[in-house]
Amino acid sequence: MLVLGIESSCDETGVALYHTERGLLAHALHSQVAMHAEYGGVVPELASRDHIRRVLPLTRQVLKEAGCNLPDIEGIAYTEGPGLAGALLVGASIAAALAFALKVPTVGVHHLEGHLLAPLLEDNPPEFPFIALLVSGGHSQLMEVTGIGQYATLGDTLDDAAGEAFDKTAKLLGLGYPGGPALSKLAQHGTPGRFTLPRPMLKSGDLNFSFSGLKTAVLTMVRQQTLDGKLDEQTRADICLAFQDAIVEVLTKKSVAALRQTGLSRLVVAGGVGANKQLREGLSHAAAKKKFEVFYPKLEFCTDNGAMIAFAGAMRLRHEGRRTMNFPIKPRWDLETLAAPS
After folding, report:
1. pLDDT score, position 250
2. Whole-structure pTM over 0.85, yes or no?
3. How far is 98 from 95, CA to CA, in rounded Å?
4. Which H or E element spans position 106?
5. CB atoms within 10 A of CB 237
6. CB 207 within 8 A of CB 253
7. What is the DSSP string of 60-96?
8. How confident is the model over 147-159, as pLDDT tens digits?
9. Looking at the structure, do residues 310 and 260 belong to the same domain, yes or no?
10. Chain-centre distance of CA 181, in angstroms?
11. Are 13 and 84 a contacting pair, CB within 8 Å?
12. What is the CATH number of the domain that holds 78?
């Protein structure tokens, strides 16, 4: 089956073609970062309008790259949720219209399931069961994954997610938007050990996360280090490093605790923060020491993309495809409510 995947949950338009026997044939992505930068964050209405402009040209692009034609498509997957309602509606309505015209089935995909399954696109995919560390701007979760649609939450964020903490801390330090990558880049020039920040809930005895207190600690440190209304560049770099060290240690040790608690030996890392170099180094070091395997998607598949939606959709279309004019969306959607394909 040749499946077209459409991702439009937030500020990136992703389109991809996945074949169940030949694998990923082509994918394309348009990021709206430049458009939203002047506002310091995503403007939902602008995001929706830009998705409208991008989906069909990107679809034509991936069809050309894959050497396929529109009638070759045998199924269409779109991001059903969670995400911005208007942005989701764009992808869902276009998917429904194309499916109706082509007389092929559609399936709505959970955005986080797409992220969670993205490492299965690699040449050396993990086998079920495994622990998944989902870390992004909106989520910090540890899941026990026993199969497609079989997800049990072991730990969740109680306030700010890791990616959100990165962005808010970057804003405190005047690093602009998007803040996470800018903070990580500046942290490379930081002085190890100059500053130490708290490790929230590291010894809580459970697998939950909380990063709002860490953000407050950074604010306090910034005020203490600011002279004449300014913070010198080296001090900003040192604070960035201390902040990143704290996040990485918490994520790493909680992941190891989840593996120990479940007795599993495979860890899958997914989501935008999964692209963080220091996090990957920390988890890989822990894997070598504790004797477990860790799997990452390609950097281009850590952020939102159409390939993960096409793949997850292909796994479900065999069982859940529908041919109606309905295109439901779920701006809020608990991953645990997903059912396994029947």
Report:
1. 97
2. yes
3. 5
4. strand 106-110
5. 20
6. no
7. HHHHHHHT--GGG--EEEEEEESS-HHHHHHHHHHHH
8. 999 999 999 999 9
9. no
10. 14
11. no
12. 3.30.420.40
